[in-house]
Specification:
Radius of gyration: 26 Å
Strand content: under 5%
Largest sheet: none
Helix content: over 70%
Order of helices and strands: HHHHHHHHHHHHH
Length: 334
């Protein structure tokens, strides 16, 4: 595209748009003209960005398009209706849409943790490489460090600390996915390694049931949130490789905005998990009751995703912002 010719052909429309934006009041005819000129300018901006990017022209025209969008759509403030829509449609739909990424991630990761646990639990030389025998006994004995960990701090502060750490790990998976997903695999492996070490050491001491009784109440929901974050991060990385029928810029913007929304939603999920870890796991409830609470909460989350999220996704919800808030784009050939 010859940029000079393109600018000459459309400069009059841009100047007219700029003139209308400077007016405090518009007639009905002028308002209609503003809408038409805004739509044209948004298309022109997309063409310039994709075919002949010029920083100065792009910046100038972007400002006009942004002002025109604000004038056309009006100022918009977040409301409780937006929060409700996000919780009942946007977030569960985004999680549902990424199920083909996070469900396999969950299955493979769980298998890796189980395999590591078996390897550590059945090989004394591996255990000796992890820590000295006296330290291992201190970790696994009744009332040892594995058990004392869950009651080492007041429940409220412990829940807050757990929530902060887990939310950070989930956010890292979502953000680092843009680097082709490689850092996500490392974060995921570290989590599975820690779980595998606990399984292996406690099983070698004949106390695997105790360990699972401590981990499962909160761990089911917590690990699901980590798997969702990891799967979403991996999908975000894959978008850079294969954006599909969309331009790479558009695909990354759409998936990135959905990932930001998922980070907020997963923070709420991990808050619930942290509360269970802080108040239920170290409680005096019998093991079956604590695990039962964890199973009920996990099943509730899966119903939330696959029923509410599936329904919203089939209705066209993607977890992205509403259409009026997105940048204008031009069609891309498949």
């Amino acid at each position: 595209m010859d940029l000079d010719v393109f600018v000459s052909a459309h400069r009059a429309e841009w100047d007219r748009l700029d003139a209308l934006l400077r007016r405090r009041r518009l007639t009905g005819t002028e308002a209609d003209e503003l809408v038409v000129l805004y739509q044209r300018a948004a298309t022109h901006l997309s063409l310039i960005q994709s075919s002949a990017p010029d920083p100065q022209l792009t910046s100038w025209l972007s400002q006009r398009v942004a002002r025109a969008r604000s004038a056309v759509t009006g100022a918009r403030r977040a409301s409780w209706q937006d929060v409700t829509r996000f919780l009942l449609e946007g977030f569960p739909a985004a999680v549902y849409r990424t199920r083909y990424w996070w469900v396999p991630t969950a299955i493979l990761s769980t298998a890796v943790a189980a395999l590591l646990g078996w390897w550590i639990g059945t090989h004394p030389e591996v255990q000796a490489a992890i820590a000295a025998p006296s330290e291992l006994r201190e970790l696994t004995r009744p009332g040892g460090e594995y058990e004392a960990y869950y009651s080492s701090h007041p429940a409220a502060s412990f829940a807050a600390q757990v929530w902060t750490n887990n939310a950070r790990a989930a956010a890292m998976c979502l953000v680092l996915g843009v680097f082709l997903g490689l850092p996500v695999l490392w974060v995921l492996f570290e989590n599975m390694l820690n779980l595998g070490v606990g399984i292996g050491l406690m099983s070698s001491a004949g106390r695997l049931d105790t360990f699972l009784g401590l981990v499962l109440p909160h761990g089911l929901l917590e690990l699901t949130a980590v798997f969702v974050a990891a799967g979403t991060g991996l999908r975000l990385g894959w978008t850079l490789i294969d954006p599909g029928p969309r331009s790479r810029r558009t695909a990354l913007a759409e998936e990135g905005r959905a990932a930001v929304g998922m980070a907020i939603g997963l923070a709420l999920v991990l808050f619930v998990s942290g509360a269970i870890e802080g108040f239920v796991t170290p409680s005096g409830l019998p093991t079956w009751a604590r695990i039962g609470i964890g199973v009920v909460v996990e099943l509730s989350f899966l119903v939330y995703v696959f029923v509410l999220g599936g329904r919203a996704a089939r209705a066209g919800e993607t977890g992205d912002v509403e259409a009026v808030e997105r940048s204008a784009t031009v069609p891309t050939a498949a």
